[in-house]
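Quick entry between incubations.
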Amino acid sequence: MTDALWQLPITELARRIAARALSSTDLVGASLDRIARLDGALNSVVRLSPGALDAAREADAEIARTGPRGPLHGIPIAIKDNYTTADLPTRAGTAVEALTFPMEDSHAVARLRAAGAVILGKLRMHEFAWGMVTPPTRNPWDLARVPGGSSGGSGAAVAARLCPAALGSDTGGSIRIPAALCGVVGLKPTYGRVGRSGIVPHSWSLDHAGPLTLTVADAALMLQVLAGPDAGDPASSAAPVDDYTAWLDRPIRGLRVAVIRNHFFDAVDDDVAAAVEGALRFFAAQGCTIRDVAVPSLRHGLGAIYAIELASSTAYHDRSLTQGHVAGFAADVRDLVEMGRLVTGPDYLRAEQVRALIMDEMAAILAEADVIIGPASPLTAWRTDETTVSIAGRAESVLAASWRLTYPFNLTGLPAIALPCGFDRRSLPISLQIAARPFAEAVMLRAAHQYERAHDWWRRVPPHAG
Amino acid sequence: MIELNTFSIAACCPRTGQLGVAVASAVPAVGGLCPYIRVGIGAVTTQSWVNPYLAARILDGLASGQDPEAALAAALATDDRPDLRQLGLVDARGTGAAWTGTGCTRAAGHRTGAGYAVQGNMLAGPDVIDAMAQAFEGSAARDLDERLMRTLEAGDAAGGDRRGKQSAALKIVASEDYPFLDLRVDEHAEPVAELRRVLAIARRQLVPFVAGMPRKGGPAGALPDDIVAMLLKAPAERPGGSLDGGPVGAPDLLRDVIGLRQEPGRTAHLLARFAPVLAEIARLRDLDLADIHPPIVFDPTLPYRRVPHD
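Done. Structure below.
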């Protein structure tokens, strides 16, 4: 029964559950067993839900009576610890005990429960989603390496097949970076597509909620459940929700692909660049048109996201600043929260103006293209003791490098997905990034799914998941 | 003859007509050897296996009406080893010219553009020249001292001289026969950063003094009283000095205006951590964005749309 159950994506698990060939109780039990066996070294789980097995039994009873509510019914899903949950405390990665968060389900968790998913527990993250390394979590491909962040627990847990899916949040790349470094699929939907009420804010106009999964089809299933209006999130959109799975297998002949050759290819590891060029050749061979383009204003992107993210985060944490709680923050996070004060009002608004420039240039590209394709990360997972790396002969801090290719899609709010596209010389996963027009998740997922189906990189299991 | 492996810029301000040179190197006291500036004529930097006479000949050529390329070529023609020389210059109209001899130590190169010439040899890589040119071109709204300083900082950040660092200098001539600014850091582990510090003090303590000095063709006169009063104080007590508390009753900018309420040591730490972030944000300040509406759209209907959370 537990024959490599853990290796299966949700699409297959859901099929077996619907056919009564698999029970949620067995599936959740298998997840808990794997966590007990493997997570001591990975450190991806903060806390397990004590009611998970009960919830699985309830799911089984309901499925036996009336069939599954949908493909997530009975599926164990773990949650980044910045989403509030009714049955588990939320810590958002902080050790400051005076800071507490409501014991109620965030919008996304409530949607998952309504779809019948079993909430397995909470996953580790960098404190308040600042930073991209997620200590002490380790990468299942190499325990000496970081999983990326800030949703590092989500990336490590899905990659190690502790659970088939997890929720993450993405302000500058925090879903896609750990997905890239851990070799799983990370989906950041369009800004506003998935409601964020109940997620501890980091930077209101950059924060996105989304899933990490093994496959693109599973990401589509998750998005189908998560997408839609959220009365508690003023940024959530009432735009109609597409059927994300219906079109996944339709051919992509004629799809127009744009490749942003500046910024995204400025300093990229040779193995990463080769894998991405290989992926582009695949799309060309499928009958897609490939066009090289440029987004010149991205040279000001880093200044823009710094100003917006720092100022917003400091505004959110103002109470912790005045009450002295920041003294208990990790040193790097405390620095960031305190220095955000130094971003002036005009700097913040100029950053927003620059954001408009970047949005306009991206929109002009997407007027003549359906998707933008490039690398998700210029480097693969780095060692926990590395602070700078040499990429294409140029020294860069790993933190600066890690979000360089992801934050443009936080500034523009465009949907973007990271998915495996090969392995480097150290057998570490390489990741492809595909973005699309606002609310065009369906075409983005279709392109990603077609690539994935032809390559099946996701089937390769990390050494620390056996 | 000394080999001055160096990165530098010679430039002209299109608004004020100021001419200047900024230079950094891994030899001591580079400011005494490379920059040559003549008011209203041009600015030259001579480096690599340095021949100072070439700079004088170029300035003579410019003074006699030659354009920069012609003046440079004529000066090099008088030298029996032009392959060892590196020169950069601008004339008072902002036309740049540069020469990098084939015998200069790699990476070596130069670039000229509107109002400037950047050049260097024995560099960490070709990026140094690109970074310097970009810093100069990207700061057109700034005064020449700031543009030269940023150009040097960009070269330094891109790797600078591959042997390390030792000295740096910034010299600007305005309309007088004496320099408007002539700052040198002759021996220091971080000469470019130290030059930035010296520049900040010079702007507050020296520039007002130089502005009050006798002018060509005008009455010599005396310094304004407030400048005299400032110079009678000990350096540490002047504006920008280490004991400068600002005018009595004036707010502490960081503490009272910005709201950064930290111990002095902590403030210094945060400012240091913020410096690279600020470098990115400061570039936004140089853009002309007046016609761009930010993508922030105020929605007065928000509170009416909200329904009770279920």
